[in-house]
Amino acid sequence: MRASLIQIGVNQDETVEARRARVAALVREQSAADLVVLPELWTVGAFAVDSFRAEAEPVRGPGARTAEAMSEAAREARVWLHAGSVVERATGESGETVLYNTALVFSPDGDLAATYRKIHRFGFDRGEAALMSAGTAPVTVPLPDTTLGLATCYDLRFPELFRALTRDGAELLVVPAGWPARRAAHWSLLARARAVENQSYVLACGTAGTHAGVPQAGRSVIVDPWGETLAEAEDAEERVVTADLDPAYVAKVRADFPVLRDRVLP
């Protein structure tokens, strides 16, 4: 199984429409992959909070511009596509507009196979944490040869979410992010930690460029269930990171070193 992470460069001088079209073309170029992953909030930039409301869109139906473009790209490339996340505009119980940081997964047929609303919002009562509502449940996605577990950026700091995903059958943990350069060391450390403790592949896809004045870490990485780095971007430039994964290796590692069997707490 070949996985490709596209470390998108977010330049605030590029319009959302232009970037959407450019990223769709990059996805189409990855037709040799089985799974393609994009970063968090690549349409607007993860720290461009002043643009969230203006650029919010539904994930289905009229106005779902990013979902439509990514569906078409996945279908033309014949790949499973984790399209990163978008600022989702939804309607609350009282009819009010609610925003979510929502990840989208498309099948090779272009069908929207799953969505995941980010549970842990970053900002400490500001930014994303103040503007967006929180998701409430872990999400896994069955693929023909493995099961994806979905998380987004700041979620990486909360191991209990990843344990829940593992409990629900995840063998490949996908983490799109807009992670800042000043905490790049944490990003690399936590990606490997989540792989080791859950004996799963981790595909952590970050952005390049600068979001609203915040330089991004880049350093997208693919880690195997033993914690070995299979491929990694060594900088924050736009590039593709690719590795071949063996879905059967997850079961082998878990059988040879059955640490998950000894869990005491849920």
Can you describe what's shown?
With 266 residues, the protein is α/β, with parallel strands linked by helices. The chain has a single domain, classed as Carbon-nitrogen hydrolase (Nitrilase/N-carbamoyl-D-aminoacid amidohydrolase), CATH 3.60.110. Helices cover 26% and strands 29% of the residues. The chain is built from 7 helices and 15 strands. Strands 6-5-4-3-1-15 form a 6-stranded mixed β-sheet. One of its GO terms (molecular function) is hydrolase activity. Belongs to the carbon-nitrogen hydrolase superfamily. NIT1/NIT2 family. It comes from Streptomyces macrosporus. Keywords: Hydrolase.
Structural class call reads alpha/beta
What is the beta-strand fraction?
Answer: 25-35%
The CATH superfamily is Carbon-nitrogen hydrolase
Give, in order, the helices and strands.
EEHEHHEEEHEEHEHEEEEEEH
> Which spans of ≥5 residues are poorly predicted at pLDDT below 50?
none
**In this structure, how is the largest beta sheet organized?**
6 strands, mixed
CATH fold node name? Nitrilase/N-carbamoyl-D-aminoacid amidohydrolase
Averaged pLDDT, please? 97
Radius of gyration from the alpha-carbon trace, in angstroms: 17 Å
Q: Count the helices. How many?
A: 7
Count of discrete domains: 1
How do the strands of the widest beta sheet line up side by side?
Answer: 6-5-4-3-1-15
CATH architecture level-2 label: 4-Layer Sandwich
Number of separate strands: 15
Give the quaternary arrangement of the chains.
Answer: single chain
- The level 1 CATH classification is Alpha Beta
